[in-house]
Amino acid sequence: MERLEDYLRLNAARTPDKMAVVGEKVSVTYAQLWRRVQSRAEELRSRGCRPGQAVLTRASQTVDFLVDYFATHLIGSVAVPLESQIPEERFRAFEAFLKASTIPLGTADILFTTGTTGESKGVMISHETLIANAENLVEAQGYSSGLTFILAGPLNHIGTLSKVYPVILTGGTLLLLEGMKDLNRFFAALDGPSAPFATFLVPASLRLLMAWSGEKLRAYSSLIEFIETGAAPLAQADMDRLCELLPHTRLYNTYASTETGIVCTHDFNGDKRVAGCLGRPMRHSCVFITPEGTVACQGKTLMLGYVGEPGKTASILRDGTLFTHDNGWLDSEGMLRLTGRADDVINVGGFKVAPSEVEDVALSLPEVADCVCVPAHHPIMGSVLKLFVVLADGASLDRKRLARHIHSSLEPYKVPTLYEPVDHVQRTYNGKIDRKYYRSGL
User: Fold this and answer.
1) What is the C-alpha to C-alpha distance for residues 353 and 188, in angstroms, rounded to an integer?
2) DSSP helix/strand/coil, 251
3) Among 4, 24, 17, 75, which Cα is nearest to 45's?
4) Which of 68, 181, 279, 358 has its CA 20 to 30 A from that of 425?
């Protein structure tokens, strides 16, 4: 079983009538999905698609997208899922770039990621890596054939797309949702007959869910087997609130990226409910801390490299080790603890401050719905910290109270000097704070 499609074919033979994908308009059993994938594969061949060729698609939350994705693999081509709303001009630019690039044999997917740098990089992922990621998640988080996994995030991003792998591996059911803007659709899905459920939600979506429908979420506690989060730091206050609402649900904080694959995970509703604790490496992964204090990863889940960018690949991937820009350490139990991104650290008067640490403390106040800590220039003090604050409904900004609250938990040099209310925090499509946006405005 070398590819996901091998498991899809096996499930179609073993459990043909089992529901494979439940969409908002179309649903298919495993037998129906496999027939559609085979038919689509023939269409792609007749269109001239060949092994090793990049096949670009818009990653919609539909059965059709998944059919395209699996069919592309089936004929040996490379799946390149792009944002569903990507403009045609940008779509064609990616197409031209890939046509002029060399793609190694064995590449399954190319995922374009911008992170917070704003620079598009095509991450090449092998079929072996897809299976390794799937096995990591199955073993560490307990996927099973009886599970229905709700996919509410963008399927061109590793956070959500990687959940397709273990569900197909175990013969479970995928339930597709168009994001989390309509919370009623999320709860309507939980009202369906396919319990138990699991899902992956970025911290911003979890915060939205708890703020607007916290008590309603509590009522569904018995139906939710686990929730995984990642892509951005989860604040301590959000962890505490989620555990209180879902006392019997496994709640996983995961260390993963497009480049590293799915590496570590930790159920913070079991023990060690600590912000930044991401657990131990999974079956196919290994982590260590470099002398510079950053996280390095090894194992089967690493990317092959950046397509068309050998120099950028060599800058972080050398001799089977991927060197990240994440600051972290391993505790006495071998659990990975993150302390922020090395390139996000703010220098204030010679002291180094991780902005996520300040944001985490600020978010523990009920009047703070969201926030971002950035460097700013002060005419007298020079470089200082500034906190942009999104206030909860009906709240007003009390700068002195907020400063006192932060000072009660952090050293004085970590307390922002400036505070400003804003309507929202600028984030990337996968829920990370877009720090490049704020740096560009300084």
Assistant:
1) 43
2) strand
3) 75
4) 279
Its sign, for the CA torsion 81, 87, 88, 91, is negative
| SS3 readout for 303-363 | CCEECCCHHHHHHHEECCEEEEEEEEEECCCCCEEEEEEHHHCEEECCEEECHHHHHHHHC
Tokens 């989860």 belong to 234
CB 234 within 8 A of CB 277: no
CA distances from 222 to 151, 195, 196, 414 (A): 19, 9, 8, 41
**Segment 83-124, tens digit of pLDDT:** 998 999 999 999 999 999 999 999 999 999 865 445 789 999
Distance CA 138, CA 388 (A): 39
What is the model's pLDDT at position 115? 52
State how far the Cα of 373 lies from the Cα of 22, in Å rounded to an integer.
40
Structure-block tokens of residue 85 = 């709303």
Q: Encoding tokens for residue 84?
A: 């569903």
Which two structure tokens, joined as six digits, stand for 203? 């911290």
Q: What is the pLDDT of residues 209-221, one digit of tens each?
A: 998 999 999 999 9
* DSSP designation for 93: H
Query: Which residues are paired to 351 by β-bridges?
Result: 348
The Cα–Cα gap between 339 and 176 comes to: 33
